[in-house]
Amino acid sequence: MTNVDFDALRLDLRRLREEASSRNQPATEGIARLRKLLADVNGEEERFQLYLMLELELQLNGDYFAALDVTTARWNEFRDIASQCGLGEALMNCKRHNEGMAKFKSAFQKAVEEKKLVNMSFEYLARGSLQTRDIETLKIAAGQLLQLPIDYTENDIPMESDWLDDAQELGLANDIINAIIRRARAQKSMLD
Fold this sequence. Notes:
This protein is an all-alpha fold.
């Protein structure tokens, strides 16, 4: 069994990316190292982190289809909300918007049912809706989110609001936007 020092690995991957960039080449050495580590590691948490790191390295290299393969493998192994959102994002990056949106919708519903990662999955769905210009899906999901108590979810990220200007531009009603902002502020104050 291999124990991974993730701080050292991150620094090494950054160094390899910088070296490859200085030679104007793709950073394939870090990708190969991550693939080997993933093959050698059995621990669930370590495997999950290695998948995330490998996906990111592939995306940074512009290899979205390989990143989709890795994200699919992560989803098949873990079947969790975060992996499903990641798979949706990978599908969107490969211009498979309908499949990506289906993953986002399913992840949001699963998050609501399990009472965890609701904010995270909603934001993936919101950003996917904006990317595909699907205001109706966004309105429905926002309505569902706003019906939930503020303290409904556990193990979640704080609600972000960087996407709200785009949502307003696309036609999301100001009262919904304001309600999302109030919800985000209330959740943030609960964490402080």
